[in-house]
Design goal:
alpha+beta; Butyryl-Coa Dehydrogenase, subunit A, domain 1; Butyryl-CoA Dehydrogenase, subunit A, domain 2; 3 domains; four-stranded antiparallel β-sheet; 11 helices
Length: 385
């Protein structure tokens, strides 16, 4: 008989979790409230994390990176999400922007953009799909890339782009054939210093305020053919593949927020008394906390399964959709319930759960809304029928 699934982390994975957890306790949690209030971009924290090997984790060893697995990145993402999902979004988006190059890029692109620019120089990169009129409908993007000799001229804009104000280069998607629908999309690498690239004003957000979010505008930006990722017309398929790889990490960050809500509630409900008893002994409160624990464990298992699938080379969009939808929804419920457990204190900024509630909502929106995840699940369940 073959061995079944292993739910115990290896010694190496345990060490990775402990190292990241210590980093979060020392470098993120003490400053999270200030960074949130003042919308401070965590550049110094990013470079400390890079020196530790817990950002840019997917850069292969041959290009100077650590060559981490998707599962290892998920372990780190949960710990960073526990500390602050705003800071963790800023730390993690480099991996998202690198994924098109990792999936479809050639050796020269990987060596230069990932190994030299992001790795050796520690540069930031951003991922550009979303537009003002194209959010969930990725195929509806309007940014154009028109052939001009040995280059393409790009015009258009991208919005809600994480780390846009600080990125040194972007992986973006544009239409190279307006008549071909989703088959007319192509992925390009765009240097921030290219003439015609500008970044708009940073958005003022409800939550995850330590994460920079802004608009990118392209006005007659020239992109050489060597900056095409994959083949012309492959952009939509690359973008869909990126989601399969990125959603486990997003789900894991939501798990981190869930665990933070759970631990804060356990601590508070043990100390706070009502009617002569610690409030966790009142079933109305205790059951909320029990549900948080159940949903956290289930969310984490789904995130682990989705990451394992990536590492095993299995393509099944249902699993990352399960993980992302469930973890996002359960994290949102956990944050709402945590504020309820804390009562009036939960509504006050001096207590940590107020921030969790503001930070959590975006999990049901970015990297594909919870509704889109369900559309994917339905499509896959009924495929071929």
């Amino acid at each position: 008989m073959t061995a079944g699934p292993q739910f115990q982390l290896s010694e190496e994975h345990e060490m990775l979790v402990r190292m990241t957890r210590d980093f979060v306790a020392d470098q993120i949690i003490p400053v999270a409230a200030e960074y949130d209030e003042k919308s401070i971009f965590p550049e110094e924290i990013f470079h400390r994390a890079r020196a530790l090997g817990i950002v840019n984790m997917l850069i292969p060893e041959e290009y100077g990176g650590v060559g981490a697995t998707a599962f290892e990145e998920v372990l780190v993402s949960e710990e960073l999400g526990y500390g602050c999902t705003g800071i963790s979004s800023s730390l993690g988006v480099n991996s998202l922007a690198m994924l098109p190059i990792l999936i479809a890029g050639n050796d020269q692109q990987k060596a230069y953009w990932l190994g030299e620019r992001a790795g050796a120089q520690g540069q930031f990169c951003s991922y550009g799909v979303t537009e003002a009129n194209a959010g969930s409908n990725v195929a509806g993007i309007e940014t154009r890339a028109d052939k001009n000799g040995a280059a393409y001229i790009i015009n258009g804009s991208k919005t809600f782009i994480t780390n846009a104000s600080h990125a040194h280069f972007f992986t973006i998607f544009a239409k190279t054939d307006l008549s071909a629908g989703h088959r007319g999309m192509t992925c390009f690498i765009i240097d921030r210093e290219s003439p015609g690239v500008s970044v708009g004003k940073k958005f003022d957000k409800l939550g995850q305020r330590a994460s920079d979010t802004a608009e990118i505008v392209f006005e007659d930006v020239e992109a050489p053919e060597e900056n095409i990722v994959g083949e012309v017309g492959q952009g939509f398929y690359i973008a869909m593949k990126v989601f399969d790889y990125s959603r486990p990490g997003v789900a894991a960050a939501a798990c981190g927020l869930q665990r933070r809500a759970l631990e804060e509630c356990i601590k508070y409900a043990s100390e706070r008394e009502a009617f002569g008893l610690p409030i966790y002994q009142h079933q109305a409160v205790g059951h909320k906390i029990a549900d948080m624990a159940i949903n956290y464990e289930a969310s984490r298992l789904l995130a682990w399964q989705a990451a394992w699938q990536v590492d095993a080379g299995i393509t099944n969009p249902r699993v990352p959709a399960y993980a992302k939808a469930f973890a996002a929804d359960m994290a949102t419920q956990a944050a709402v319930d945590a504020v309820q457990v804390f009562g009036g204190y939960g509504y006050m900024k001096e207590y940590p759960v107020e921030k969790l509630l503001r930070d959590v909502k975006i999990f049901q929106i970015y990297e594909g809304t919870s509704e889109i995840q369900r559309n994917i699940i339905v499509r896959e369940l009924f495929r071929g029928r």
